[in-house]
Give the backbone structure.
Amino acid sequence: SQTIHQWPATLVQPVGSPLSLECTVEGTSNPNLYWYRQAAGRGLQLLFYSVGIGQISSEVPQNLSASRPQDRQFILSSKKLLLSDSGFYLCAWSGQGDSPLHFGNGTRLTVT
Amino acid sequence: GQQLNQSPQSMFIQEGEDVSMNCTSSSIFNTWLWYKQEPGEGPVLLIALYKAGELTSNGRLTAQFGITRKDSFLNISASIPSDVGIYFCAGSRRGSSNTGKLIFGQGTTLQVKP
């Protein structure tokens, strides 16, 4: 069966520090991968999605970037965090066709 | 851009009561999904709907894909305390890119009083 792992679960970082959140998927190949941000427990905003290795599409201009160095690995990064980057970050994957999204357990990021 | 209007925004009900929530859109969707999110966790898929008019059940949960393809509802029968959480609807329109990008509603927060 397919599983998705996302870490860390919580993170507290000072303003101006770098960020790296990692997500991996097991049990499937060539998944579509996504990074979402959720503010205040509701409202899922799509940040990035990827349909293959090295292919990244950005949905909103922001201080973050994403990379997909391997088929089942998706990384969310920032060179310098802003206070406004605080939030709950969710990684998700889907198969091809009409298969639904499956989410990881999220990372609670607090920028201080 | 595309938006989903989900209502109600929140519900506070007595254990044993039935619950109904819905999502509407000005655009047509090919897929409707319903998720539940508990505090500190990612959303978990409850029901997926792929055809207009489709009615699908998952235990005490029932969801329908509206005939117009612009709406969907989720019903929960005989609510229990563990039904507490935020329920999200989501829709997708499959184009040639086949990216599977979903549009999410703003969520319905459900609280159940024992």
